[in-house]
């Protein structure tokens, strides 16, 4: 099946008991058993639920993976992957990454003497230089959050596998529609399904996809043991959103192109970050590695942090809020919102300034989005 067909049908056969086309919401905590060890594949909904299974199978299919696992949030999915580590381990990560991920690495894993080394996202050779004898995995976001740098997945996969390391790629910004890291050599793909996969800003969730059975069984054990699972209604909402993923991503990208072009020509805008622009330093890599450039645009404006309230007060269509990937356009100030957990000196050293704004371009009419930005910036 092609991508759009998978999004609608993978893991979502008509219900055998009723013929219902839509996967039912199996709103139950437990399941009847006829005897010791005799059940219909489900025992307790923390361990497994038919609605969640449909979601996991669909995400695996979209990433061309054998296995999928769904979690209660993107960070819960990250913890599932990080459960593969133990005290004394080390990992290498790109330096431009989501603030919540940085917080887990430094404030949670750090308590267990698991260290992380950060390297400039696009500098391939630096990843290998940062590897130590106790390194266990390499962690990437591409495009990165919020500066939208690209990391060469294939090149980093070669480095990781040469050193017998796992390569984990957070694919949230691209979605599986625009990028499939497993096809480029990654071992584990991660998503905050809150974002593009669900796409309607009405549920929080996370997921991973992978091919290695040993890693799958280990993370699945953690998923059940720790219990950070999505409920059946959240799973159903995410499945509902997935069905339109392909058409939404095409519109997100179309609108983002228009926004990036507009911003690059606006006198109040200092710099635009969008991999679809030929001026982007990773534009050629994006063309090779991705099937499209996505719906995220970041930009820095000429002014001070105090000007943000003036900009926000003029917005009528775009909403000033955290998160991304929904059908509506959302504007975010990373330094005080999504990346506020990163110390200022580290943020600024990485290029994340107080005048940087991140725009998740929605699927509204592009002319309305541009007019709203014009009003706000003027």
Automatic annotation (TrEMBL):
Gene Ontology molecular functions: cystathionine gamma-lyase activity; cystathionine gamma-synthase activity; pyridoxal phosphate binding
N6-(pyridoxal phosphate)lysine found at: 195
The keyword Kinase appears for this protein: no
InterPro entries named among the record's database cross-references: Cys/Met-Metab_PyrdxlP-dep_enz, Cys_met_metab_PP, PyrdxlP-dep_Trfase, PyrdxlP-dep_Trfase_major, PyrdxlP-dep_Trfase_small
Gene Ontology cellular component list: cytoplasm
Statement: the UniProt record of this protein carries the keyword Cell division: no
Cofactor requirement: pyridoxal 5'-phosphate
Record key words, sorted: Pyridoxal phosphate
Protein name: Cystathionine gamma-synthase
Gene giving rise to this polypeptide: metB
């Amino acid at each position: 099946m092609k991508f759009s067909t998978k999004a609608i049908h993978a893991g979502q056969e008509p219900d055998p008991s009723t013929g219902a086309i839509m996967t039912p919401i199996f709103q139950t905590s437990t399941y009847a058993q006829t005897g010791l060890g005799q059940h219909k594949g489900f025992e307790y909904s923390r361990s497994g639920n038919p609605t969640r299974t449909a979601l996991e199978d669909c995400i695996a299919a979209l990433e061309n993976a054998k296995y999928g696992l769904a979690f209660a949030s993107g960070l819960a999915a990250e913890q599932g992957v990080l459960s593969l580590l133990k005290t004394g381990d080390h990992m290498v990560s790109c330096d431009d990454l989501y603030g919540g991920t940085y917080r887990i690495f430094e404030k949670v894993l750090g308590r267990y003497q698991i260290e992380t080394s950060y390297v400039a996202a696009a500098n391939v050779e630096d990843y290998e230089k940062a590897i130590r004898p106790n390194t266990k995995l390499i962690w990437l976001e591409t495009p990165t959050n919020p500066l939208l740098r690209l990391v060469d997945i294939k090149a980093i996969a070669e480095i990781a596998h040469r050193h017998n390391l796992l390569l984990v790629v957070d694919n949230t910004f691209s979605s599986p529609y625009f990028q499939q890291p497993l096809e480029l050599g990654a071992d584990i793909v991660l998503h905050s399904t809150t974002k593009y996969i669900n796409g309607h800003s009405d549920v929080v969730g996370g997921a991973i996809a992978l091919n290695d059975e040993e890693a799958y069984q280990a993370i699945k054990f953690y998923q059940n043991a720790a219990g950070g699972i999505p409920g059946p209604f959240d799973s159903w909402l995410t499945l509902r959103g997935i069905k339109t993923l392909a058409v939404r991503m095409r519109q997100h990208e179309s609108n983002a192109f228009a926004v990036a072009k507009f911003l690059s020509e606006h006198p109040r805008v200092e710099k635009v970050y969008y991999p679809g622009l030929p001026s982007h330093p990773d534009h050629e890599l994006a063309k090779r590695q991705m099937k499209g450039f996505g719906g995220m645009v970041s930009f820095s404006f000429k002014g001070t942090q105090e000007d943000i309230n003036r900009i926000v007060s003029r917005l009528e269509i775009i909403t000033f809020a955290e998160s991304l990937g929904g059908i509506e356009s959302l504007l975010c100030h990373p330094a005080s919102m999504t990346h506020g957990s990163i110390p200022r000196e580290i943020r600024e050293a990485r290029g994340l300034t107080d005048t940087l704004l991140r725009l998740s371009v929605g699927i509204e009419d592009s002319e309305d989005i541009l007019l709203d930005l014009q009003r706000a910036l003027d």
